[in-house]
Design goal:
Oligomer: single chain
Helix content: 10-25%
Strand content: 5-15%
CATH superfamily of one domain: Peptidase S8/S53 domain
Strand order of the largest sheet: 1-4
Mean pLDDT: 78
CATH topology of one domain: Rossmann fold
CATH architecture of one domain: 3-Layer(aba) Sandwich
Radius of gyration: 20 Å
Distance between the termini: 17 Å
Low-confidence stretches: none
């Protein structure tokens, strides 16, 4: 879905339906990867980053050449970036056979890369980043990377545990790990800040001798009793700030 162009300098925020939670909303960048003058900005809701990603939509530096009824034309706009991302999604879904959740996650993961320093202003303009041009940069990994793709269906309260084999060197794990999670929840404005009827909570870390996961961020949401019967209580503000609760 295109992030839409600015009809005037007075309107800068993304509006409906570009605030759709389950859609992939695409903003436009110039050939140098910078936000264009006509692109609107997010974030929409605190925990829903829109746009999701960005792509090359033409600008004053270099327009896109298209075929119109009267011949070749030079154009620019967010309406031209959405079909490019739709094409990549179609390849992932229709050719490679991935489901739509995995396909969306692959697009966002490729756009984000390993950049952990995106500011709220950058996310508002670019989403999670600029999607690579070549499809191989989305579906293939570099020689120093290992990527696992996991997909499942949860119809009620369930806990899933996955064991991922990782290299061990000098009795240590010298690597950086990240996760990109995508799901399509039903939405309801009556749900308040989270806006969705479903909440998934992801814990990533080592499995201890007690067969329980040791979350690398110390996230104790949705955990059972701890040592000596102590319970974990987190205020909503702390959960949002420290663990990005409801973050999508």
């Amino acid at each position: 879905m295109a992030g839409t162009n600015k009809p005037s300098t007075d309107i800068v925020k993304i509006g409906s339906p570009e605030d759709s939670v389950n859609s992939i909303v695409v903003n436009s960048v110039s050939k140098n990867g910078l936000s264009t003058k006509y692109a609107r900005k997010g974030l929409v809701l605190s925990f829903f980053a829109k746009p999701d990603v960005s792509y090359y939509g033409g600008s004053e530096e270099e327009y896109i050449r298209v075929c119109e009824p009267l011949g070749v034309a030079s154009v620019a706009g967010t309406s031209y970036v959405a079909p490019w991302i739709a094409k990549k999604l179609s390849y992932l879904i229709d050719v490679l056979g991935l489901n739509r959740k995995v396909a969306k996650a692959m697009i966002i993961d490729a756009a984000r890369g390993w950049d952990e320093k995106l500011t709220p202003e950058e996310v508002a303009l670019y989403g999670h980043g600029v999607v690579p041009i070549h499809i191989n940069d989305i579906i293939q990994t570099k020689d120093d990377e290992i990527k696992f793709v996991v997909s499942d269906v949860s119809e009620k309260w369930n806990t899933y545990s996955y064991d991922f084999p990782v290299p061990l060197k000098d009795n240590k794990y010298p690597y950086i790990a990240k996760t990109t999670m995508c799901y399509f929840p039903l939405c309801d404005r009556l749900q308040g800040v989270d806006y969705t009827n479903t909440e998934l909570n992801l814990h990533f870390g080592r499995i201890g001798d007690d067969k329980k996961i040791k979350d690398i961020k110390g996230d104790k949401q949705n955990t059972e009793d701890t040592l000596e019967g102590e319970r974990n209580y987190l205020l909503e503000g702390e959960a949002r700030k420290q663990f990005r609760k409801w973050y999508n």
